[in-house]
Amino acid sequence: MTKHALIVGATGITGSNLAEHLLANGGWEVSGLSRSQSRIEGVKTLACDLVDGASVEKALAGVSPSHVFITAWSRQETEAQNCEVNGAIVRNVLNALAGRGVQHVALTTGTKHYLGPFESYAKSQPETPFREEQERLPGENFYYVQEDEVFAAAARDGFTWSIHRPHTLIGYAVGNAMNMAATLGAYAAICKETGRPFVFPGSPEQWQAATDVTDVRLLARHLAWAATHSQAANLAFNVVNGEIFRWKWLWPRLASYFGLDAAPYPGQPTPLEEQMADAAPVWDALVAKHGLAPNRLSQVASFWHSDADLGRQIETFNDMGRSRKLGFLDYQDTLASFTDAFDRLRADRIIP
Q1: Residue 183 pLDDT > 70
Q2: Which is the catalytic residue, given 44, 123, 143, 289?
Q3: Where do the PRISE-like Rossmann-fold domain residues begin and end (predicted)?
Q4: I need a surface site. Which of 48, 221, 337, 347 has the fewest CB within 10 A?
C-alpha cells in the first residue's frame, strides 16, 4: 500500500534529501509543505507561510497524509521568539491535519537539545556521549516547545511519533542555514583563488576534541525507518554517522580534496564570518570565472552557523545505542560525507 508523506520544510537540507530517499525507494507519495517550489521531481509542492495558521490550513485542505515529517525551522532574533515562531509551525501543521488519519509524526530537532539555544549555546558541558534520556536543560529552547506540540497533538489524535536529533548536518543543499559542506567548499574555493591560508577556523577544543556529524542521507534513512517500524514508536533518537573523529585529523583531508595545504592551526579561533567579511566580490568573480550557478555567497555559505559549531569550547558527541538496539545499524564514513557533498556541489556548478 502506498504511503503518503507530508514533508514540512521540503526544500531544506533535511526535507529535500528525505524526499529523494522516499521517492527512490518506492511505495511513497510525497507532498512538500514549504514557501518555495521543491526542485525534486515527484514532490507535490503545497506552498504556504508555515507561521500563518490560515495559510497552512488552506494549503492542506483535502490533504490526508499517513506520515508527517517536520523538518522546518525559522531563525529569530531571540530564543523567546524562536519558541513562539517554531512552536507555531508545528502546531499549525498538526492542527490543520487533526482528524485526517495521520499515523505517525517525525520531528527533526538537533544536538542543541543538549547544548542549549544560540543565546546560551554550549555554555556548560553535559556528559558525553549525549544520550536521549538526559534531562532537558533549564531555560527556553524551541526544540522543547516543538516536542511538546507533537506530544500534545499525539495525545489528541492518537498517532505515534519519533524525535530525531542529528548533529552537524553534512550533505547537498543550497540556500540552507545549516550546511557546513557548502560553507567549507566556498571557503576552500576562496582560499585557493586568493592564496589565503586554509586554516581551521574553530576553537582549540574543537580542533582537539572527539566529535561527530550527521550525513543527511543517513538521517533520511533513519526518519523513514522510525516512521515505519513499530519498535521505534514514541521514542527520541540521536542520529549521527557512527564514527568519532577529531578535526585535526579531518581538516588536512578536506584540504587535500581541494588541492590545498592545510594551514597550521593558529591556536585560537579565526571565525569564518570575520575571515569572509569582504569575500563577496571574490566569490562573484569565481562564479563568473567558472560558470557557476548565479548564487550569492550568502546563499551558498552559512558562515555564522559553521562558526557556532566549530567554535564550541566543549566536547560534543552522541550515543547511538538506542537505534542500534532497535535495529537501525547504518554507518556512514565521515570523510565521504563531505567529499560526496563536495562532488555533487561541483557537479551542479554550486562550487568550483
Answers
A1: yes
A2: 143
A3: 67-352
A4: 347
Residue 114 a catalytic site member: no
Q: Does domain 1-165 have CATH number 1.25.40.20?
A: no
pLDDT digits (tens, 9 = 90+) for 69-78: 999 999 899 9
| Close Cβ partners of 347 (under 8 Å, ≥ 6 residues apart) | none
Give the Cα separation of 269 and 314 in Å (integer): 14
286-344: per-residue pLDDT in tens?
999 999 999 999 999 999 999 999 999 999 999 999 999 999 999 999 999 999 999 99
Q: Calculate the dihedral angle through the C-alpha atoms of 154, 2, 24, 228, rounding to the nearest 10 degrees.
A: 40
Cis peptide, bond prior to residue 294, ω within 30 of zero: no
Known catalytic membership, residue 143: yes
The residues with which 5 forms a beta bridge, in sequence order, are: 30, 67
In the set 3, 44, 112, 123, the catalytic residue is 112
For the chain, which residues make up each domain, given as ranges? 1-165, 174-210+242-314+331-345
